[in-house]
Amino acid sequence: MKPALPVFKQYRESDGRFHFKLIDGEGRLLLQSAGFDAPREAGQRIAAIRAGGFQGTDEAVELGEDVTVADVATALKALAEHEAEKNARA
Description:
By secondary structure, the chain is an alpha+beta fold. 39% of the residues lie in helices and 22% in strands.
């Protein structure tokens, strides 16, 4: 059985701002965003991270506790490989 994939979760806080987080397959918080005014802005930042990676210099996104940039890179690679496999089967 394959390990669970990391997942981006997008949500709205009680202050009305939109946030996202990246959770690994074991439920550990890897990334947490600041608030965005619109869900589209949060979605665009997720897309940019998925496409270009995370170098730790994005002031709108911070690493989870005891998480390294390498941990995030590993999670993003797993997501990219899964997407590539899915597209190859389609």
